[in-house]
Write a structure and sequence with these properties.
mainly alpha
Length: 148
């Protein structure tokens, strides 16, 4: 009788690296191709670790922003932000670098502005400032201060 082969178990890092490589390849063909790749990946791979989902939704928000899909972008930003705790737990030593590379705060502020939700944009500015992501979020917040 033949032995059953064990399923391949990848680490969260390996799964993230696969996602990033696939996204990089798809993004060469523009934001629509990147968006399609990410949507397919999220739909077909229900067992993706939550940390990887956070990064996937961040990348999806970027593609949706480039396509002008502001409602989709806002949803993707919200999902990416929900996964930050999982991302930090999975990558404690790399979390800061990964957080600084994410575009979900930039795209989220832009999407909220495009949708007329200036209070939501202010909230994202405050959250980015609380995470010490840069003085430019202070400038963004100051430019939206009229909405308070």
């Amino acid at each position: 009788m033949a032995r059953r082969s064990e399923p391949v178990r990848k680490s969260v890092r390996e799964i993230l690296d696969d996602l990033l490589a696939g996204h990089r390849e798809a993004a060469f063909n523009g934001p629509q191709a990147a968006s399609s790749y990410l949507r397919r990946t999220l739909e077909q791979q229900a067992s993706l670790p939550n940390a990887v989902k956070a990064v996937a939704h961040d990348l999806l928000a970027e593609a949706q922003g480039r396509l002008g899909d502001w409602e989709g972008c806002a949803r993707s930003v919200a999902t990416a932000l929900e996964g930050l705790g999982e991302l930090e737990a999975a990558f404690p030593h790399e979390f800061r670098r990964m957080l600084e590379a994410m575009t979900c705060f930039e795209r989220g502020i832009q999407a909220r502005g495009e949708l007329g939700d200036f209070h939501g944009a202010l909230d994202l500015c405050d959250r980015a400032l609380a995470l010490d992501l840069g003085a430019h979020y202070l400038a963004k917040r100051d430019s939206l201060e009229w909405a308070r």
